[in-house]
Amino acid sequence: MSHNTIEINRAMDRFDGHHSVWLFGYGSLIYKADFPYLERRPASIAGWTRRFWQGSHDHRGTPEAPGRVATIVPAAGAICHGMAYLVTPEEFTHLDHREKNGYLRLAIDIRFDGGGTEEGLVYIARHDNAAYLGEAPELEIARHIARAQGPSGPNAEYLLRLAQALRDMGHVDEHVFAIEDYLAGLDDGGLPRPA
Ligand code: SIN
């Protein structure tokens, strides 16, 4: 599959005719909501786990030196915590552009932390997309993140902001926190030092 998923996502008609749609965010969509929303609620999806296995050519890296960002992979019994946003369908023009580097919209059951479930959408970067990097030891992922940067800024910032947002919501993600720990132990840590 090509890197750019805009056309495939635009053709998805699962929620056509709906006045609003729930979107589940598990990566930068947790801490960077650069779109208007009607409502925002902490939530989770069952049977998925967050992994820094997706390459980023357009936000936290470049085509020549991709960064590493989050996707979700199936995992029996796992719960992936994140943030759900109720948005109008027009927002998907911006969201499809933002998530264009390999992410596909997938219909999914979203469970709200306060109770209740709604079917909504999540953007997932599957293993068959051209930007996928796949599994690697967490130390190697930390080293990769420490040296990558792209138009949206240092790759380390993505990881650190996500880890902090999860912590603020009271969640532990062992994969994310392990990478964060390794990053802290590296010489440069991936973020520019103050002058
Ligand atoms: C998400 O946050 O739900 C998708 C991945 C990303 O944009 O970081």
TrEMBL record:
Q: Name one GO biological process term.
A: glutathione catabolic process
UniProt keyword list: Lyase, Transferase
GO cellular component labels: cytoplasm
EC nos: 4.3.2.7
Annotated GO MF terms: glutathione specific gamma-glutamylcyclotransferase activity; transferase activity
Q: What top-tier enzyme class does this entry carry?
A: lyase
Q: Which InterPro entries match?
A: ChaC, GGCT-like, GGCT-like_sf
Q: Which protein are we looking at?
A: glutathione-specific gamma-glutamylcyclotransferase
Q: Which organism is it from?
A: Pseudoduganella buxea
